[in-house]
Amino acid sequence: MSSASSVRPVSEQPAAAPTGIACDIFCAVIDNFGDIGVCWRLARQLASEHGWQVRVFVDDLHAFQKLCPSLALDRARQAVGGIVVEHWHEPAHAGDTLEVADVVIEAFGCELPPIYVAAMARRERAPVWFNLEYLSGEDWVADFHLRPSPHPRYPLTKTFFFPGLGPGTGGVLKERSLDAARAAFEASQPEREAWWLKTTGRAPPPLTATVVSLFAYENPAIDSLLEQWRDSAEPVVLLVPEGRISGAVARFFGLPAFAAGSHAERGSLSVHALAFIEQPGYDTLLWASDVNFVRGEDSFVRAQWAAKPFVWHIYPQADDAHLPKLDAALAHYARTLPADARDALARFWHAWNGTGRPDWAEFQRHRPALKQRAAEWAVELAQVGDLAGNLALFAKSQLK
Ligand code: TRH
């Protein structure tokens, strides 16, 4: 039987041998945690699995520190787990010593510092330059993935790298050790008991309870859902990392706030507020839950690898540009579900994203089918290949 210390967090896997490839990742944080969440996960993977020397330029150390508590807020440059982190404090800043890496990743269309681009052009061998785009499951993504875009003035080419859910795209991030870490956690009763005790101060709930993790933006549908959970026939244990939805949970219980460590009960519903977890630990929350509510981009991906039924609160965009993305993701994820389960899932996702009322009883009725599909989908998605591996392979083909 595995002991409580036998499961290695995904971040602590043995490092790959150094390859001498240097990589700079530039990340401008628009809001929340997804921009740096994706960049930091990619950085860690390129360093640990591909042996690259990685440097991350990021303009918001506060957002970053939530995911990585060992980060110092007052340092212009620091090393975290073998990765150099530069506080990118102004558009012109490109590190105290201007060195240009072999591979340059401009995340989500953030503009590289002009002096850095000029230095890229002066480099004896031009670096491999990627624009890493946001994830979308839409069909057009495969057509645009790896399209080159020559620079208008310099002898440089930028390659558009599109994450995606289908063949021909860049895929999504997945660490090599992820499935084994999940399997070890799921197989270890002591591991799970230790997790529940550490995270909620209590023993794991009975098997009759449905455990739900809730990571979402402010969402008007939450009130109805909390009522349905309160009134449900079976117990519901809700785990809420402190954040944008916490205020609504507090209001439901008539509390001034629902800060980490709080616990509240009403009817069949029992809720724990959790402290925001260090990024590698977030997966364990998903593995410990039966149903995961996730949002944005990175948690959406992690929920797919957790292979549990999940509900996506997509990042809202102007003119409802996010709605086709929501439906494209559903088309992949729900593809082989029986029609009634597929419709129930689509209705629930749409309700959670502003159209209609979420029907928990209906979702629960289809949960066995959703659970089976979630496991199959994780296998299907893995066939697209992992984003870091796909990116490293392409970069190496260009560096030859
Ligand atoms: O935080 P998000 O909503 O982030 C983003 C940004 O808003 C971005 O601008 C937008 O373009 C993008 O979404 C689509 O959601 P996301 O992407 O899931 O990022 C959250 C990160 O926080 C993810 O890496 C998981 C991590 N996390 C923890 O590390 N600990 C926690 O306790 C929780 C709840 C999340």
Helices and strands in order, then pairings?
Blueprint: E1 22-27, H1 34-50, E2 53-58, H2 61-67, E3 77-80, E4 83-87, E5 103-107, H3 114-122, E6 128-132, H4 140-144, E7 148-150, E8 157-161, H5 178-187, H6 189-200, E9 210-214, H7 222-231, E10 236-241, H8 246-252, E11 263-266, E12 269-274, H9 279-288, E13 291-295, H10 298-306, E14 310-313, H11 322-333, H12 339-352, H13 360-365, H14 367-382, H15 387-399
Parallel strand pairs: 1-2, 1-5, 2-4, 5-6, 6-8, 9-10, 9-13, 10-12, 13-14
Antiparallel strand pairs: 3-4, 7-8, 11-12
Bound molecules: 2'-deoxy-thymidine-beta-L-rhamnose.
2'-deoxy-thymidine-beta-L-rhamnose is lined by residues 30-35, 37, 67, 134, 215, 241, 276-277, 279, 282, 295-299, 315.
Function: Protein-arginine rhamnosyltransferase that catalyzes the transfer of a single rhamnose to elongation factor P (EF-P) on 'Lys-32', a modification required for EF-P-dependent rescue of polyproline stalled ribosomes.
Family: Belongs to the glycosyltransferase 104 family.
Protein name: Protein-arginine rhamnosyltransferase
